[in-house]
Amino acid sequence: MDIFSRMRAGEPIRPTDEGHGLVLEAYREAAMTVMEMNSAYRTPEEVLSYLRRLTTGTIDDSAFIVLPFHTDFGRNITIGRDVFINSNCTMLDQGGITVHDSVKLGPNVTLVTSNHPLDPSDRKAVVSTPIVLERNCWIGAGSIVLPGVTVGEDSVVGAGSVVTRDVEPRTVVAGSPARVIRRL
């Protein structure tokens, strides 16, 4: 299994692993592409073109992303139909980020798929798990979604929340850590 497959499978990735140089190269490529994309006004079509240069996933033509947009890796992002991503979104996508149809992300939303082991002697390792935003969910401004979380269909994450565990479909959560406020 190559290092990118291992990463997507949630295996620890260490700087000493065979193929780690490919990961570093992907980071450099993402940094250059994102910097160029954010350096001037871009049409919606140009923004999608930049994202497609990075990702191995699909980006639907109907998605609308407001710049600036940030990613550290870019390879593992999939964006569905009629998705709206507001300004200053950050997607740290080593573990994979899937944004299903009709999802809305407020400004300054951060999606983080990577973490480090608790063992101090192994803290240079990175362990990544996917984030899935199911159909028609809405992530409020300034929210952070942590590794391995699925936000269920038609759910709402209140502004400024830190989502540490899965959100059931048709549920409103808010706070840090996010807690259920009500069912829809």
Can you give keywords for this protein?
184 residues; alpha/beta; UDP N-Acetylglucosamine Acyltransferase, domain 1; 7-stranded mixed β-sheet
Can you walk through the features of this model?
With 184 residues, the chain is an alpha/beta fold. The protein has one domain: UDP N-Acetylglucosamine Acyltransferase, domain 1. It is 20% helix and 26% strand. It has helices at residues 3-8, 20-38, 44-54, and strands at residues 64-65, 69-71, 77-79, 84-85, 89-92, 97-99, 104-105, 110-112, 114-115, 127-128, 131-133, 138-139, 144-145, 150-151, 156-157, 162-163, 171-174, 179-183. α2 runs antiparallel to α3 (44-54). The mean pLDDT is 96.
Uncertain runs are none
Total individual domains: 1
- CATH H level: which superfamily? Hexapeptide repeat proteins
Strand order of the largest sheet: 1-4-7-12-15-17-18
Largest sheet: 7 strands, mixed
Compressed to H and E, one letter per element, the order equals HHHEEEEEEEEEEEEEEEEEE
Structural class: alpha/beta
The helix content is 10-25%
Nearest-integer average pLDDT: 96
The CATH topology turns out to be: UDP N-Acetylglucosamine Acyltransferase, domain 1
